[in-house]
Design a protein that fits this description.
The protein is α/β, with parallel strands linked by helices. The chain folds into two domains: 4-97 and 175-259, P-loop containing nucleotide triphosphate hydrolases (Rossmann fold, 3-Layer(aba) Sandwich); 107-173, no CATH class. It has ten helices and twelve strands. The chain has helices at 4-7, 49-56, 88-95, 113-123, 129-142, 158-170, 188-204, 215-221, 239-244, 249-259; strands at residues 11-20, 23-33, 38-42, 64-69, 72-73, 76-79, 82-85, 98-101, 176-180, 208-211, 224-229, 232-238. The strands form three sheets. A six-stranded mixed β-sheet has the order 8-9-10-3-11-12, with helices on both faces. A four-stranded antiparallel β-sheet has the order 2-1-4-5, with helices on one face. Strand 4 and strand 5 (72-73) form a beta hairpin. The radius of gyration is 19 Å and the shape is globular.
Length: 260
């Protein structure tokens, strides 16, 4: 019998467009991500990568199209006379299922590493404190920071803060993790420690969409590469195929710049 849970995409975008002023940032994006996939979004600066992520969790509202999380439409619900926007509570409930790891960590400075990880599961999901603390300690160990549970962000390196951010996102038990250039704010020597955690998550089957400029990570860990340029998807192929046989001249130019 087919696994119906995996037949429904973890995330699906249908005809998603977004305009800022006169600039069309996303143009009729169709994208489907299966449960357990790691999809890397590549493309030049200004191609719409971050906006795509922000539309998925409704931090940006698309001007047209529809987005679904495991078959449930995000941001819009059926109403008495057609579709109507979700209210803040409904949106908040959807967002608990979408983990987001930002470029600049966004940790609460007045909380320890452990405090940052347990805050939302306790106060948003209303889970038992003892259970959450035990799970948070396991997650900090998973990202290599068991010995930093009581450290405040000011005493952590950038790589350590980003790994706390990943543990914090995982503590919400999300359906999918979104990464917005998670290593771009790190010193080069700290990049590897974050990417190694992300590779482990990919190999474990965590569903992830990763906006990144780390080409080796995309080749090693991604199920697929989606190449964006000027708000349009030019390629959506297996990672190895993208790097070995890019189909468009724009993709080839992009890869040549990174291979110099």
């Amino acid at each position: 019998m087919a696994d119906t849970a995996h037949a429904v995409p973890a995330v699906e975008l249908r005809g998603v467009s977004k305009v800022f002023g006169e600039h069309e940032v996303l143009s009729r994006i169709d994208l489907s991500v299966a449960a357990g996939e790691t999809v890397c979004i590549l493309g030049p600066s200004g191609s719409g990568k971050t906006t795509l992520l922000r539309c998925i969790n409704w931090l940006e509202i698309p001007d047209s199209g529809a987005i679904f999380l495991r078959g449930t439409r995000i941001g819009i619900k059926p109403g008495m006379s057609g579709s109507v926007p979700m209210n803040d509570r409904e949106l908040a409930a959807i967002r608990t299922r979408i983990g987001m790891v930002f470029q600049h960590f966004n940790l609460w400075p007045h909380m320890t590493a452990l405090g940052n990880v347990i805050e939302s599961p306790i106060h948003v999901l209303r889970r038992p404190r003892k259970e959450v603390i035990e799970e948070a300690e396991r997650l900090l160990e998973k990202v290599g920071l068991a010995d930093k549970r009581d450290a405040y962000p000011a005493y952590l390196s950038g790589g350590q803060m980003q790994r706390v951010s990943i543990a914090r996102a995982l503590a919400m038990r999300p359906d999918i993790l979104l990464f917005d250039e998670p290593t771009s704010a790190l010193d080069p020597e700290l990049v590897g420690e974050v990417l190694s955690v992300m590779k482990e998550l990919a190999h474990e089957g965590m569903t992830m969409i990763v906006v990144t400029h780390e080409m080796q990570f995309a080749l090693d860990a991604a199920s697929r590469v989606v190449f964006l340029d000027r708000g349009r998807i030019l390629e959506d192929v297996a990672a190895k195929e993208f790097f070995e046989r890019p189909k468009t001249e724009r993709s080839r130019q992009f890869l040549e710049r990174f291979n110099r």
